[in-house]
Structures are given as C-alpha cells and as structure tokens.
C-alpha cells in the first residue's frame, strides 16, 4: 500500500556539509600551508596600478612608484610556475578600478576545509576590495562560510594553518581582537581544536613577514619577531624552527613571502641568496621568481596568492 508523506512528516539529511560539499560545491579545501597546491585565486594588476606615481605612492602604503607592465609580467611569471605544476589559477573579477592594492588577494580571504572566510581590510582605502573577491568565489562555487563584520578587522595573512586541528592567529594593525574572535568561532566549528594566538609586532603587518611553513614540520622564522610564547608552542608540536637572519632579505626583499607548492618545495622572490642557501641546506627545493616591481606595494608571492585548494596531507 502506498503511503503519502505530507507536510512536515519527513526527516532531514544528517550528512555533514563536508561530506556533501564535493557534490554540491566542488573540490575546495585547505588545512595546510604546504600540502600539494591545486588551485589559487589571484588578481592580475589592471589599470588601477597605473595611478601609482611619485607623488602619491605613500598614500596607498606603497614604497615606491610602480611600472605596470613590468609588474604584470612578474605576476604572470608566478602564475606560469603554478600552471606548470598543475595548479589551476583563477582570477578575481569585477574588482574596482580605484584599488591599486587589490593584487594582494591573500589579505582578503582565508581558506578552510569547508570554504572561505572573507576578511575586512585594516586599511580603509582597501575596504571594498572584498566584495569582488566574494563575487568571484560565488561564481567559482567556493562556499563562503563567514564575512568579518561589526568592528572586526581581519586579513587572511594574519592566519596560518599548521595542521587540520591547529591554526596560528595574529593580532596587529591588520587584525583586531573582534576579527580574530570571529575567525576562531568559525574554525572551532570546523573542528580546529588548537589556536595559537600571537601578537604581530609593530615592524610587521602579517604573519608571513616573519614566519612561513616549508614542510609539514618545518617553519622558517625571523627570530627577532617571533614571540617566545608562540615559538614555545610551535616547538612543543615538534615543529623545527629554521632561523633566517639576513635582515635586508627578510624586510626588504621579502624572503619569507614564499609559497609552498608541496612539502619541501617553494617558490620564493628572487634576490635572496642567503635565505635560499639556508632553505637548500635544509633539503628544501627552491624556485626563484623576480618580484622587485611587485614589492613596491610591500607584497610578493605569498601576498598575491590566495589558496583555494590543497590536498589533505596524509
């Protein structure tokens, strides 16, 4: 006998979002800084950087004027390295034409195993860039699990995955307590159990200015900016701290602003011979790419690259 089930007499699916995400949203995932990289989001510099010149570069926190064509060629070279390694490169669409910092996409989002957290920039002249990132994520099918709101400030480079259960969160000029609390809430909802909180010092704006992972249990640090409490918690998790100490390379050539393509293989800004030698000494494969023009905006490889998908580490 056929039974008609009507009204509210039905039962919802008890599958988790993570179980259903590949079917309904696609393959998007990140819980590591070093797991094999499969997809990234970038913004190719457009007409907006043509407005940066000798008389106004400081207004946008640039360290000098910029040659647009040369900057584009340098970013294109980085994107080619990604593609040559089988990484899908997606580009932000609909970005405003009055936002010359928009090429530094990592600041605008933080990827998780179940979707993106869209940030809220610290600098007021960057606010509004997030909208184009959110629109692009939606068009790609990347879930947006949260957007920083209220009086919160958070940029993606103020967070760093150590493993599926552990994230470093830093407060400073680009992330305040309200923003970090919102991010922590979402991360704990996704199963992150360990949050290492640290202050980003006055001389840096993001974590990747003085620390970055190169392998599953190896991190390169600029030791004079890592707090004792943070270093202690890292070492307690059996993470080897590799100390890079060439101040010129760290602070001016952005030696730690590299991207791991996979464990033990990174693409680093060119012009950092001491740091490159240190990495190779530790068994890390290094690919160098010219970034000196891009650096005039105080950013490089890592700043321009928002992760969309990394394979889970086994």
TrEMBL record:
Pfam families per record: DDAH_eukar
Keywords assigned: Transferase
Keyword field contains Transferase: yes
Any GO molecular function: arginine deiminase activity
Spans through the membrane: none
Superkingdom in the source lineage: Bacteria
Gene Ontology BP terms: L-arginine deiminase pathway
Zinc recorded as keyword: no
Name of the featured protein: Amidinotransferase
Naturally occurring in which organism (per UniProt): Salicibibacter halophilus
Organism lineage string: Bacteria, Bacillati, Bacillota, Bacilli, Bacillales
């Amino acid at each position: 006998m056929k039974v008609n089930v009507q009204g509210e007499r039905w039962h919802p699916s008890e599958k988790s979002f993570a179980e259903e995400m590949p079917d309904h949203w696609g393959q998007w995932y990140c819980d590591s800084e070093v797991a094999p990289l499969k997809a990234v989001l970038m913004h190719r510099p457009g007409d907006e950087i043509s407005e940066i010149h000798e008389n106004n570069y400081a207004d946008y926190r640039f360290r000098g004027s910029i040659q647009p064509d040369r900057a584009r060629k340098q970013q294109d070279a980085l994107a080619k390295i990604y593609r040559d390694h089988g990484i899908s490169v997606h580009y932000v669409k609909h970005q405003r034409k009055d936002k010359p910092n928009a090429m530094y996409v990592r600041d605008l989002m933080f990827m998780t195993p179940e979707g993106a957290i869209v940030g809220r920039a610290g600098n007021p002249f960057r606010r509004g860039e997030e909208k184009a990132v959110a629109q692009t994520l939606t068009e790609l099918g990347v879930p947006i699990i949260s957007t920083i709101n209220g009086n919160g400030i958070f940029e993606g480079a103020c967070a760093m995955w150590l493993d599926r259960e552990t994230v470093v969160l830093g407060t400073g000029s680009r992330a305040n307590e309200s923003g970090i609390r919102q991010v922590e809430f979402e991360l704990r909802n996704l199963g992150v159990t360990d949050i290492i909180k640290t202050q980003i010092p006055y001389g840096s704006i993001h974590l990747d200015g003085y620390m970055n992972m190169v392998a599953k249990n190896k991190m390169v640090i600029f030791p004079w900016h890592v707090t004792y409490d943070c270093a202690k918690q890292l070492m307690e998790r059996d993470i080897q701290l590799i100390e890079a100490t060439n101040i010129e390379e760290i602070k001016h050539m952005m030696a730690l602003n590299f991207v791991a393509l996979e464990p033990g293989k990174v693409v680093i800004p060119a012009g950092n011979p001491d740091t490159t030698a240190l990495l190779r000494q530790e068994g890390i494969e290094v690919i160098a790419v010219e970034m000196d023009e891009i650096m005039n905006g105080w950013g490089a490889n890592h700043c321009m690259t928002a992760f969309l998908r990394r394979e889970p580490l086994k």
